[in-house]
Write a structure and sequence with these properties.
62% helix, globular, mainly alpha
Length: 253
């Protein structure tokens, strides 16, 4: 019954993996800080200190992020022998034209060598595995988009598939889920929160549904602090359900 969703997910994974394989390492936004956070965990140094000064392994603002995405990536890459830290790879291109859309060359911020080529090993391998973690998290967001439409319009499966496709093949969505970033995690679990809130509003209260919704909300908050702002969505769903139950009881007095 959900063949359309499965096809969309398969095509998305193929495209996102290609994106991840082709984007040079450390060229995506904040990639050095996100990688360094993972590297701290895989090297056994624990969580980074929030007020680490800029220029250290993990810059201050990245060090302050919640840990879920980095724990997932570290669990997937702990076995890789990272040969160097980011600074050993950060050979800046003095002629880079990053941000200049009219430039025909020197678009990369760093100088890249054959050491990054496939088959990957060491630091490049860690980066590419972490990108696959991001890609896998993207499937949750796509599935949530599909599920939200089915909750609202259960007979319009084609519309649900369209929503999933619109999400999956948005170029920025693919790029975000083909790089090392906790944005992938907060998008995934935040989408599940939205799905759960809509389901609660449509179907009514259930203990199991509320537990799953609370778990998704917790995972979103553990992915990035912005996940906390989804709290009002839970409250609105509960309020809607409460008003519906109250209206039903009044109508049967």
């Amino acid at each position: 019954q959900h063949l359309g969703l499965l096809v969309i997910l398969a095509l998305y994974v193929i495209v996102a993996v290609l994106y991840g394989a082709l984007i040079p390492i450390f060229e995506s936004p904040d990639a050095n800080g996100h990688y360094a956070y993972i590297h701290e965990l895989t090297e056994g140094r624990g969580f980074p200190i929030h007020d680490t000064p800029s220029g250290e392994r993990v810059t201050g603002y990245v060090a302050g992020h919640p840990p879920l995405y980095y724990l997932l990536s570290a669990a997937a890459t702990f076995w890789v022998q990272d040969d160097v830290d980011f600074d050993d790879w950060a050979r800046f291109n003095p002629f880079h034209a990053m941000g200049n859309a009219d430039a025909s060359a020197n678009k990369n911020r760093l100088i890249h060598t054959d050491a990054e080529s496939f088959p990957w090993r060491g630091t490049p391998l860690t980066v590419h595995i972490a990108r696959l973690v991001s890609t896998a998290l993207g499937t949750l967001a796509i599935t949530a988009a599909y599920g939200i439409v089915l909750e609202l319009l259960p007979q319009r499966r084609w519309l649900a598939a369209s929503a999933a496709a619109l999400t999956a093949f948005n170029p920025m969505f693919i790029f975000t889920h083909a790089r090392v970033s906790n944005d992938a995690a907060v998008t995934a679990f935040g989408s599940l929160v939205a799905w759960g809130a809509v389901r609660l509003a449509v179907r009514g209260f259930s203990r199991r549904g509320l537990v799953l919704l609370g778990a998704a909300y917790g995972l979103a908050a553990l992915s990035k602090l912005s996940g906390v702002i989804l709290g009002p969505a839970l409250l609105l769903a509960l309020l809607f359900d409460g008003l519906r139950v109250g209206h039903y009881r009044i109508g049967h007095l």
